[in-house]
Fold this sequence. Notes:
This protein is 24% helix and 26% strand.
Amino acid sequence: xxxxxxxxxxxxxxxxxIAAREALLDRAMGPKRRKKSSExxxxxxxxxxxxxFVARDADGHVIGTVRLWDVRVGEGGTRALLLGPLAVDPAMxxxxxxxxxxxxxxxxxxxxxxxxxxxxxxxxxxxRFGFSAExxxxxxxxxxxxxxxxxxxxxxxxxxxxxxxxLRSCGRRQKPARLALAA
Length: 183
């Protein structure tokens, strides 16, 4: 049908998607993406179990990605998820891919029993998924970030009550490259 939105599906990310995902992130976010505060929390870690997704077009090409990461607020504090990056192939922008990835990621995080999701992003975009800065006032990211872009969504009411401090990585460590190739 002419003018119809392209079709896509969302699947769990596979090891075979790594190169396509990284190329997509480079196209969508540029070379400075690795210098963000959120990246410091992801470096050397694997996404939270069952919470890494890609969107594929009808030909199976990766056109979108979202991953969630295990973090802890402060030393030994509240556990939460850090969402990001969410990225869509620039050629597919405004096709509903990013929204579908967000809805899927939030739904799966809730299904898996997580209490809250944090992110640094555009408040007007993420507000439609329930994110706001209301619960992030006593929280901080490591390194520079724009405070008004630090947002949270409680999947369980009260999950962030009393949470305070700087976010820290607490997820599964990534295998060193040599060991990963041998495994």
